[in-house]
Write a structure and sequence with these properties.
single chain; 309 residues; alpha+beta; Gyrase A, domain 2; Elongation Factor Tu (Ef-tu), domain 3; 17% helix
Length: 309
């Protein structure tokens, strides 16, 4: 959801529950802010109501190549459904669980929206049945490493009210042929005129030793051909790429429109980490990485992103 300038106000996922009823998943840290923003968009004439049901559900993510096989032991529902689809099913004798074939880290798996009264029961069953599958609890740092490696921008780190989908590499999600939506005119201008900054995926070159050198933590200056052009946002060690990965904003120093060649050409990028500049390879696309086969998918194949020329 965007503002009139085309910037993000809410990085959310909508689940259609009926013809005129939706369930929204949004950043929990923005719960009050999003409710206020949503209510301000509803006019007095609109037949629309918005309710905050955050306390009614708990979200658990089951991620990994064995997730489908493991969850199948806890329900009688066919879990063969495509990405970004949702079903309401019974799991471990608990009813009303909404299962999404979607994860925020780009790995195969499911997101479970569990009625709060069943959360401890389902969690206990997941850990019990998952023992033989090697299930482990992981935290936000693990999820951060996975999503940074796969070039997945995150709210309040890469996305905010000043960032547009075209700048963040999400232009493929913009449908300018739709009827009016908030921010449409601003995005039409960017599509026609171009953009002056881009979110870029950097992998540090082999001169960086993660066992010996100081790690980047975000906010490090980015240099292109010895000229300062931006700062990093999120960083993590990519265990699949076996390299340190940084996401960061690159802006033309003169404020001019920036073509993809400005990033992908023969330019030399460096990131200043604790006073030492480290060479980095820049990309506007997620890297293609092998993953353990699940349902016939042998590798992570990112959808081609719409890049504004």
């Amino acid at each position: 959801m965007l503002n009139e300038r085309g910037g993000y106000e809410n990085d959310c996922l909508l689940i259609r529950r009926a013809d005129n009823r939706y369930l929204m998943l949004a950043p929990t840290t923005q719960q009050t802010r999003i409710m206020d923003w949503m209510r301000r968009q509803i006019t007095a004439e609109a037949c629309v109501s918005v309710s905050d049901i955050t306390s009614m559900y708990t979200v658990l993510c089951v991620v990994g190549p064995k997730s489908k096989e493991m969850l199948s032991l806890m329900c009688n529902t066919d879990l063969n459904f495509y990405g970004h689809m949702a079903k309401e099913i019974n799991i471990a004798y608990a009813s009303g669980v909404i299962v999404l074939s979607f994860t925020q880290v780009g790995e195969p798996g499911y997101t479970l929206l569990i009625p709060s009264e069943y959360t401890l029961h389902i969690y206990s069953q997941l850990m019990k049945i998952g023992h033989d599958y090697g299930i482990r609890n992981v935290g936000m740092m693990t999820m951060r490493a996975l999503r940074v490696e796969k070039f997945i921008p995150f709210w309040a780190e890469e996305l905010d009210s000043t960032v547009t989908p075209y700048e963040a590499g999400r232009g493929y999600k913009v449908k300018l042929n739709k009827e009016y939506f908030i921010g449409k005119f601003a995005l039409m201008r960017q599509a026609n005129q171009g953009i002056s900054r881009r979110l870029v995926h950097f992998t540090l070159e082999d001169t960086f030793d993660p066992d010996e050198d100081t790690w980047p933590w975000g906010g490090e200056p980015i240099y292109r051909n010895n000229i300062y052009v931006g700062n990093t946002t999120s960083t993590a060690f990519g265990f699949t790429l076996n390299k340190m990965v940084c996401l960061g904003w690159v802006k033309h120093p003169d404020g001019r429109v920036m073509s993809p060649d400005y990033i992908l050409g023969t330019s030399r990028f460096e990131i200043d980490i604790a006073g030492r500049r480290v060479a980095a390879r820049a990309s506007l696309q997620p890297p293609k990485m092998p993953v353990v086969k699940k349902d016939g998918f042998a590798s992570y194949r990112p959808k081609s992103r719409g890049i504004v020329a």
